[in-house]
Amino acid sequence: MPSTNLTDTIGAEQLRKVLEEASWRANLSLILLDARGQAVLQSHPMIGACSKVGSRQAGRRDCPVSHEGVIQELAGKQGPRSFPCPAHTGYTVLAKVIAPRSFLCGALLACVSPREDSSWREELFFLTVARLQEQAEIAQDIESLSQEIAHAYEELSLLYEFSGELTAVFDAPTTCWLLLDKAMGVIEAKRGAVLLMDDDGVSLQPVAVKGFSTEEAGQLRLKLGEGIVGRVVAAGEGELLEEVATVPQEERMQDPAVGPIRPPVICCPLKVREQVLGAVAVTDKVFGKRFSAGDLKLLNALASQAAVAIMNARLHGDFRELLVSIIRTLVSAIDGQDPETRGHSERVARLAVAIAREMNLPRDEVDNIEFAALLHDIGMVGLPPSILSKRDRPSPREWSLIMQHPARGAEMVMHIKQMEKILPGILHHHERYDGQGYPRGLSGNDIPLAARIIALADAFDAMTSHRPYRLRSKWTMEEALAELEATSGSQHDPAVFRAFVRAWRHGRLDRRALGWSLRDGAQT
């Protein structure tokens, strides 16, 4: 709402100049009132403008006009008012309201002498009022534009921040929750929901729900075209409904507010180009406030960004499934070379994922560790079967060939752009924490974390699975843990070992990740 304070709107110095000029040219005493009827400035042709209203100056006394009464009488009127001056016999007081765009800002009063030609003075008085009103309108336009620019900047900042948050999300449900939290926060809504289209193309399922009871949330499964949300998805256009009465009569007859989402509500589609993925709806603004067209515009902008993120998340998921399929095909090729180690890569991957999660690593990092663990032995492809299935310990020459498999595996996948992030886990999974490993002899934290995790998982599975060259074929869990503890700090990262132990004790190791010798007694 524009300011009603003339001093703030136009500025005290500019007001003073306007009043002094008019007072001097027309030989008039002028008094400027604010919107409450308080005199804030007066000007006399002999002494100029002054804010000391009501005091004696240069031997003259100002007109003791009832200013509050003038404002009350002029409020809502655009025309001037004139009345006899109560302090000077025969003098007339002219009064006219200053109300730029109907916002009452104050009034201007002038005391006119009966002994002088008053017509041109009155005309100059009205021109002065018009000038003040015009300057107030210009100032209000500037203030309004400044507010619009500030609001637009806030919206752009919000959208930029939201866009940054979306880049760190790779799944649709998390994106939906992020959208709902952001929308309800900035629009100040008490309840909201995000619904996505099912694969059947006719059903909408709630993915993120906030502020609704469990019973109400259960009513949010809708059909395309059903209720406000279904209608928005079908039409692909956002809606703002303040009252049920604003819903078309034929739709009210069919109960358009199916479920708990009903006016007052804003609903916008999650739309990418012409494809509608679902919708977001927020309802019940806090403190009984009303939703605005600006709220609708902002929600639509947030929904558009989220829709792109959801589409990307789905594409990412499809690509991940394709990548996993390719990786598992490669793993089958590895396992097919030696029946004795079949399932080794899968078990190492499950162990590595459990450890990574126990260390609270980000989702994308856990995924990369899983892929690296699945492919950690891909460099074994091409080794002679006689070496892989040999029942005696390999000879020094054979060991030298086996020790080349990390580097060979990294070379095999390095040209696949999507696998760049998993190379360190493959290349360095035989490094030792004390620097005595291969192929580079890295030590401590110089070894990539993925490789340190895979190294422990690989060692654990090797101990608890059958190996043709090992006389002892079975290790108990206690024996395997004791061996890992003994090599913690030399062969293995102590932090990784502690995470592994926590995952085991808390039952977070997938039973399928355990070697055959442990499965019957596994803690699951």
Summarize the model shown:
With 524 residues, this protein is of the alpha+beta class. The chain has helices spanning 6-9, 12-26, 67-74, 119-166, 172-187, 214-217, 227-235, 249-252, 293-335, 344-358, 363-374, 385-388, 396-402, 405-413, 423-427, 449-464, 477-486, 494-505, 516-519; strands at 29-34, 39-44, 48-50, 81-84, 92-98, 106-112, 189-197, 203-210, 222-223, 239-241, 265-272, 275-285.
Distance between the termini: 64 Å
Shape: elongated
Describe the strand arrangement of the main beta sheet, using strand numbers: 3-2-1-6-5-4
Mean pLDDT: 81
Instruction: Please give the largest β-sheet.
Output: 6 strands, antiparallel
What does it look like?
The chain has 524 residues and is α+β, with helices and mostly antiparallel strands. It is 47% helix and 14% strand. It contains 19 helices and 12 strands. It has helices at 6-9, 12-26, 67-74, 119-166, 172-187, 214-217, 227-235, 249-252, 293-335, 344-358, 363-374, 385-388, 396-402, 405-413, 423-427, 449-464, 477-486, 494-505, 516-519; strands at 29-34, 39-44, 48-50, 81-84, 92-98, 106-112, 189-197, 203-210, 222-223, 239-241, 265-272, 275-285. Strands 3-2-1-6-5-4 form a 6-stranded antiparallel β-sheet, sandwiched between helices. α4 packs parallel to α9 and α10 crosses α18. The protein is elongated.
